[in-house]
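Escalated from tier 1: phosphoenolpyruvate holo job.
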Amino acid sequence: MILIMKQGFSESELQEAIHAMEAGGVKVMVSKGSETTILGAEGNSSKLDEEKLAQLTGVERVMRVSEPFKKANRKYHPDNSVIDIGGGVQVGGDKLAVIAGPCSVEGEAQITGVAQAVKAAGAAALRGGAYKPRTSPYAFQGMGVEGVRLLLEAKQATGLPIVTELMSSDQLPFFEECVDVIQIGARNMQNFDLLKKVGKCSKPILLKRGLSSTIEEWLMSAEYIMAGGNNNVILCERGIRTFETYTRNTLDLSAVLAAKQLSHLPVVVDPSHACGKAWMVERMALAAVAAGADGLLIEVHNDPQNAWCDGAQSITPAQFAELMPKVAQIAACVGRTL
Ligand code: PEP
Ligand code: MN
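Tier 2 regenerated the structure:
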């Protein structure tokens, strides 16, 4: 349930409304937006008396919210959330955030070289996997701690914030210390224990959409993180599994619009994992920006043919540098900047 406060309400009216809701056994989330102030009930709101609340002097309207996600719901927080990821970079504002880098960290020269190249082309942050969720247990599993250390070196060389995937909560204290944005991969989108744990941490979370997850399931996973107190969630559409096998996944661009309609959280698009084909990345990235994405997550590798992971979908630094001015042009068409 949400309470929409009247324009010009007083502090005592606000407190009265908060207390009335708390008396009904819920916690209250106060969202002071640009136009309205909204009080959102967190928890079981079945005991709240809608009519009584509606009669409070500072209250304009009371609304039952039917969606199961609350803190992630735009009804609870009408303004877009803008998430600070460090290094002066924000995700969700007018300026698009392009996160680029290799699927996995392979060595110092590789990660720092790619970081410098993507930075020069205008990337806002560096991606790179140190712990890789691979289908085969015999495939390269990532460099682990050393990979994170190399990401930190690349960060030092470029100033780019780093984004990397957390697979196990065992690594969470280390990630909290070193990483700027913690990625929760598609395969862990419904690892509820992991979601609860990152919900208690202080770093922004990039939450990828699960392999076959509905938009509501995805937003419920964001809700798990936010329920723990971490409101800094960035959603990432990375394609879903459909009957189509030509592409690795099917990029669901309508999900960008839906997620942004339903939620205030920023949404970025990963065309690399969605398509699985490097030659499709540019056009799908541009389409994502046209659809209203708040940013992109793009795999860029110095030598895609010899990449240890996901080479087929990785573009080169030169291709990335060609893409970025086009992203800026499409961004301008939809009222955004790069
Ligand atoms: C990745 O970003 O390299 C990755 C493994 O992505 P996803 O979880 O979307 O498959
Ligand atoms: Mn990858």
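The pocket of phosphoenolpyruvate (ligand 1) is lined by residues 103, 129, 133, 185-187, 208, 238, 273 (CB under 6 Å).
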